[in-house]
Amino acid sequence: MPDMPWFKLYASDYLVDAGIDSMPREAEALLVRMWCICHIEGSCPNEPGELARKTRCDLQYVLQCKPHCDPLFELRSGRLYSKRMEAEKKRSKQASLNAHKRYEQKTCAVGTANRAANSTAERSAPSDYDSDSSSSENLSTKTQFNSTEVAQAICLANGWSGRQMIWALQEAIDFQSAQMPESSIEEVGEWLVKSYFDRRASKGDFAGGPQKFFQQALYRQGLGRVGNGKVNASSDDLVARTMAQLEAK
Predict the structure, then answer these.
(1) What is the pTM (predicted TM-score) of this model?
(2) How many CA atoms lie within 13 A of 183 on its CB side?
(3) Which of 60, 169, 231, 240 has CB atoms 3.0–4.6 Å from 191's, for a disulfide?
(4) CATH assignment of 11-87, given 2.40.160, 1.10.150, 1.10.10, 1.10.4100?
């Protein structure tokens, strides 16, 4: 079974495709049904009788229209593979790899900056012998951030701007925190960001922008908690972004 129950069909590309435009209009119905079988099974049968059964069409209709559809498919081992859908799969896979590569490069860069900042802070921090209990308590709470600060830091790191964008992400963090009680605010924020980029990787331009994603709570569609409310991805990069944001103020 495919990962998604739908497949992409770009209206403008479809209407200007010379191969489709040249076929009889009644043959287009068979073409779409053949695409549906290809999406479900990866390919569709070439044998007319089996194709008629799979597409739930009359055999005579398949025999009449299939020759018009054949040029849009590639025959391999007795099965028909859609040239358009195979090309789209390659583009989607490459787009997903590129998105994850950019994400990893960004988190690697902020992680390096965070380690350098932590090293500097540790060298300049007072020793236990110089600090009383009150100052030690203040130091320990410096890395505790609220949902507003985390939302601001995430937006800054990803180039998302505007009050509405920050508010949408903050509300998403507040909501999802209740669903993930064992995760920190930073981990919840990182989970939401990863959910958005995963949706972008799978849906492309149809995914919409981040503000819509968080405002409409699209992260709740098929995205559950991992384990006992813990996220798989490390939150080190998010903490780094947050600290960098606060340092810049």
Answers:
(1) 0.41
(2) 28
(3) 231
(4) 1.10.10
